[in-house]
Specification:
Chain lengths: 317, 304
Amino acid sequence: MHAVLKMIAQRLALGALTLIVVSIVIFSATELLPGDLASAILGQAATPETLAAMRAQLGLNDPAPVRYWAWLTGALQGDFGVSLATRRPIADMLDARLGNTLFLALYAAALAVPLALVLGVLAALWRNSIFDRVANAGALSAISFPEFFVAYILVLWLAQSGYFPSMVRLTPATSFGDKLYMSFLPALTLTLVVTAHMMRMTRAAIINLMAQPFIEMARLKGASPLRIVLRHALPNALAPIINVIALNLAYLITGVVVVEVVFVYPGLGQLMVDSVAKRDIAVVQAIALIFASAYVLLNLTADVLSTLTNPRLMKRG
Amino acid sequence: MSLPVFLILFLIAGFALAMAFRATLTRTLPHNQAIIARDMPLTAAFGIMVIIVYIFVAVTAPVLAPFAEREVVGSQFQPWGGAHPLGTDRLGRDMLSRLIYGARNTVGIAFATTVLAFVVGAFLGIWAALRGGWLDQVLSRVVDALMAIPSLIFSLLLLTIFGTSVLTLILVIAAVDATRVYRISRSVAQGIVVMDYVEAARLRGEGTWYLIRREILPNALAPLVAEFGLRFCFVFLTISSLSFLGLGIKPPMADWGSMVRDNATLITFGDITPLLPAGAIALLTVAVNFVVDWQLHRASGLKE
């Protein structure tokens, strides 16, 4: 047990280091601005006096490390400063949207993960059959489709006939059931895009294992194909599968950007796109930090979990 | 015509065309290439055929298109038929002509970006593998740090800073993707630099540029070509997505991503016109993926 705790502690430390590096990269983005933040905000209206006043107001006269520290400690307490475009506190703008985006990503994950695992196992079980070939060609196509193509096909097919709404209007009063119903199309779009990837990797991981001696042994023992896949192959394929799931969940977090715009879903992605168009760097930095942290944390979790499923990996150090 | 029926017809047509294309190739190519063509799976034949059609359309766009790219030729949102086989768009520009010009603009920009990402990423990756030491350490750690941020998010961050124009778009996406190319070309080159023939060339006193060009690149070509195909798909999809979001290629330039965005309102009236540019993007990506899949399969020497 001691070794496990040590491994987890090591990974956590590495994850924390990655997060710090990521935050530095995101923060230094403003340093790349031609001129500085103050002249970016004021634009044409800049006079030396207003520039100086704006710099003092934004604290731009401090050296970069001091400003970075202030920004990071603020962000950790949920204070991201104020938006450059609207002058509203960024935390207020993020508040409801963060929950909405998380809801959409979890919703899609709840649909996609079981679906991908079942399809992947079945494709591996019946490999080279018609089912496998169709599933594979379908998956390859689905990976290649832009999200908005999938989204609009679903709109044309399911929203036109009146089954589901093509726009999502969420208010705090919306009940959970209504939320599930209204966000079904965006969730389905994300599901289709990530399922394909996860299914292909699950299939590949299991087929890789099928050539191993212990599978041969199980087969010679007379175990049924389903039992071989579920009892002998699947537990050993867990590590790669967990990694793929985490990678795709991380993808979901950024994939929401396009899908949210298509369905006018009030989430972080849409806010980010609007802010990029307005060149509101403060808001973009805040959202980038949230997305990037989620990405790092998911990868970290996957790393720890897949090491736990395979004790041999612990020796890797 | 309902969507499933259309899809099935499309699949059958694609299947038949791919068969015919493969048969023609087997018939007309010189013997040793004809054998490759004969054994190629239908999906790959379909992919190659689609890619050839796209290149043809992109090159001959001004000849094929009935109207100019930016010319307003009618009232807005005209239905299909008559002088405008696919109707007109939000401003009354001919949809078909813009679709054809889109092949040139969208695919051209994506291709240029991929080439740039490859030249920079592959050169740095191979150089790092060749030199090792502190250069390798510094470059690899920088790339690690940049890759810890999801690429779309990082691109959006950079676009906020540098503004959205075609040039910044190409540079930003190329920079972000170069990190991924760096990774793969470094790992491929690392397997090659330890070979005896590289050592021999080093002892002969050959320079870095000679080693990269004559010793490493020819041996790293197969995996890098497959990676180029995959990378092109990623870049193409990213650029289309950004254009769709209004942050990439902008009107009046004809571009498939922004054409979907511009005409998306038609979807709510059950008109499939906005799906055509999106479908054009999807079809090319599928085609490239099919060919890459086949190449990877061939390169790995797997036979079923």
